Every structure is written in C-alpha cells, then in structure tokens.
Amino acid sequence: MNTAEAHTTGSGQGPRRGRRPIAAARALSGVLAVGVALSLGHAIAAAFDTAASPFLAVADSVVDRAPAAVREMTIDKLGTADKPALLIGLSVILLLIGIVAGLLERPRRPIGSAVIVVLGVVGALAAALRPNGSPLWALPTLLGAAVGVVTLRLLVGALYRGRQASGSAPPAESAPSATTGPDRRRFLILAGSAVAVIAAAGATGVALGRRAADVVAERTGLRLPRVLPRQKAPAVPAGIVPEAPGVTPFLTGNDEFYRIDTALRVPAITARDWRLRIHGMVEREIELDWDGLTAREAQERIVTLTCVSNEVGGGLVGTAAWTGFPIADLLAEAGPLPGADMLLSTSVDGWTAGTPLEALTDGRDALLAVGMNGQPLPLEHGYPVRQIVPGLYGYVSATKWVIDWEVTRFDQASAYWTDRGWGERGPIRTASRIDRPAPLAELEAGLVVVAGTAWAQRRGIDRVEVRVDDGPWTDARLSPAYSLDTWRMWSFDWDAEPGLHTLHVRATDGRGEVQTEQRRPTVPDGATGWHNRTFRVTA
Ligand SMILES: Nc1nc2c(c(=O)[nH]1)N[C@H]1C(S)=C(S)[C@@H](COP(=O)(O)O)O[C@H]1N2
Ligand SMILES: [Mo]
Hints:
By secondary structure, the protein is α+β, with helices and mostly antiparallel strands. Helices cover 34% and strands 22% of the residues. Strand 9 and strand 10 form a beta hairpin.
C-alpha cells in the first residue's frame, strides 16, 4: 500500500503539515508582533518621556482609575509589590492577546492585525490622556503598533504563502499545494529579526528609562533644606484674591505652572550628580555640589515668573514660593572681576541665558532655587537646581537644570535666545489681564464681577482701570499687594446692560507709568497692548 497516497487523501498528516501552519507558529507570530509593537513604542517614548510609553501609560491609567477600595485592597494584599504585580498582570494579558491575534490572522483576513491596531489605539489614548501628556504622546505607540502590524503580516505571510517548503515532498508528487506551503526559512529569519528588534528596543527603553526613574526616585525621597523662620516668605495677606468664583489663585500650583523650554526630553540629572561650576571673570573658581549648596541658609521667596513669549492676555505667567539660596552670596564668594557685567548660565542640556550681573547683585531676591511651593523642583521645572530672578523674563534669567556659571561681559558672550533675535536684557513689561468671566461667557444683565491680575515685577502695580466699550476708564478694586515682584489681583463690579460689550483693562506701575495701548508682538522684548474681552449680556 502506498502510504504517501493514503495520507494525502486521508485526514492529512504529512504533506498537509507542510501546507497549513501549525498553531504554535501562528501564536508565536502574534506574540512577536505585539512584542515588537510594545518594545518599539516604549523605546521611542523613552527618548522623550518614559511616561508616554504605552505599557506604562496603560498601567498608570489603571492605577488612576481603579476605585479607591480596589486600590487599597491590592496594596493591602500585595504590599509594595502592587505595581510590579500590575505590570506582570498586564504582560500576561498582552501575551494572551498576542496569541489570540496570531491565531486569528490570515493573509486575506487580517483580524489579528485589527487586534493590534485596537491595542495601539488603547495605548495611544492612555498616553495622550495622561495628566501631563499631550496628543504627541500618542505617536510612539502608534508607530510601534504600525510596525507590529507589519511584523504580523510578514510572519503570517511566510507561514501561509511561502515558496516551496523545505523538506516537503517533491513537487511532482504533491502538486500544486507544495508551492504554497510554509516558507520555514523565511519565517525563522523574520522571527529571529523580530526577537532582535524586541531585545534592542527593550534594552534602549530600559536604559533611557532608568536614568529618568533614578531621578524620580531620588526626588521622591529628597528632603528640601529647612528654612529658618526668619527666612520664610512673608505671609500672604487675607484677601489677596477677590472673592468671586473662578478667580486666578495667587499661588500657581506646580502642576498648573506654565512650562517653557527647548528640551525635547526632560533633562534627567540627580542632585547626587549635580555640580555648579563658577568660573570666568572671577577671583576664585568655585565648584559647588548639592551638599555644599544646601548647607547654606535657605530662603523662601514668592516671585512671579513670566515668559517673554506671553501674548497679551496669555497664560505664560505664574507665581510660586521658591526655596533657594541668594545668587548674590554665591557670586560674592567667587568675586566677579571689575568690568564683568553678565552671568552666562548653562543648563545640563546646553541651553544658555545671559543675565545682567547688576540684576543678581542689587538686592532683589535672585535665587538659585531648589524648591517650588514646598516641593523639590518638579523635573520639568528644573530639578534639582534652577535660577529665579525677579523682574526679568525667564529667557534671560530662569535657567533650569543649571550646571555652569561663567562671569563674563555682554560684549563678549551671548545666549540662546539673544542669538535668535530676542532682546539682550529682558526686563518684564507691565501687563494686565481679564481672567473672569471666561471668554465669550453668556452673562445676564445686572452685577457682573470682573476680575483679573496685573504684573510689573520690580516696579509693582499701583492702579488697574477697566473700560466698558467706549466709556471712561474706571478704577478697579485692587487686592492687597504682596510685593513688587508678584502679580496683583483686581476686581471690578460691572453693571452689565443687555447687548454685546467689550471690556478693556490697563495697569499703572509703581513708577506711575500707564501700560501702553500700542500693540507690539512678543519678539523681541515682550508683547504690549491692552487686553480685552467681549461678552454677550442677555436681559
Ligand atoms: N534649561 C533651560 N532653562 C530654561 C529654558 C530652557 O529652554 N532651557 N527656558 C526659559 C524660559 S524662556 C522661561 S519663560 C522659563 C520657564 O520656566 P518654567 O518652565 O519653570 O515655567 O524657563 C527658562 N529656563
Ligand atoms: Mo520664556
């Protein structure tokens, strides 16, 4: 009896095995595809911000969304192992999804690919919707998912539509199916490549993530230097903000504080590794480390920081209680030489600012800051050490992640943004802003409390006026001033009449200078002009 023939016509053992790929290979394809998608997504994300990793973003979202009871129970049961347990659980689920995706995928029926696309969309959404995330955070995951789909298509393609399978019967005997058997060689090469991609991307992601994780862990355990009572920021007086819903708080929360920098990836530098080198036109070069800095007497000061790129009415301004050390004292220890007029500061990522030495030594609260609102500096606000200089826009003064100070001269050095056409000295211009009611709010006729803020750091705010349509300028009610270096809140009782109305605001600084109406763009010295808002008032 011809066994070969019997098998071909029978239930299909030998040659048939050559045609229809075994389940294990299909499942493996799915697992490898999911692995490629995840590891690539993670590695690309880690190059910017590890929190954008699909894996970590999903895990973090699960933690955030878990009902408190569940969270407590798992922490109770698993102790501090709850996060690893979650990650392991997530990995098992992904492994299963990979197996299912592989088993479902057919060359002409890409159901497994669809599963990976869904997985990618879930990861991308989780990343983009993280509290500090942005739509851009979806990109690493989507790229990873795209490569994952390609991987699955190639692997399954090799399993189903290969050239003649090695080791199968000669074509003459089992034609025509032999030419469509699995291409084992191609499958193995592709699978091996996928494993290599997963290993390389995984290792990259872990290496990039570890540095950031080190910094996060260090910051969590970091104790800010103690501030003696006499060095605490003066208390914030009662009534510092008007009593009305929706007014801007006097102190800006760390999470709400605007962020501006050129860093694609938030620089990761530990306090342990941090050094500040003070050199250039000085009598003595100094190298300061964290312990050397924090052994000094710390101060706490409330200062309003502003970005030169802030448009009229914009939000690139915020106020925080900064903990730090007087820059003037550190400069005095180095001893600037006569003729020096600039401090060129450099961050760990190579960004520079040129600050007039005068602004750092004239008695204002210029700080080398380590704390923000009682917390160590958030990573994106300059951890572990940054500068805060009242009265100057951030681009000439507020260097984050600062590691180098060169005392020099304006005619010998220039800094990052001045090289790109922005002004050299960067004093903050007087500005005022309407914060409530919200833009285009629908209002009812009658009393409407209008409120906002105004700032002119180093000069202070003496007066704020509001104008309704083409009416006269009327004084707004000023909340108490905290200091020359902080914004001042104001409110205005408006007897609103039905119709469409435009309100303008203008401030007068402590020198009696009225904010100019002239509209100027942010480049090169900061925007000017009066802020306005239009409201519809119904009867
Ligand atoms: N290293 C570094 N520091 C920087 C910048 C930067 O790009 N890199 N931008 C500056 C600018 S333009 C501003 S307005 C402030 C903003 O500080 P914040 O992000 O903490 O609000 O940081 C300043 N410090
Ligand atoms: Mo800025």
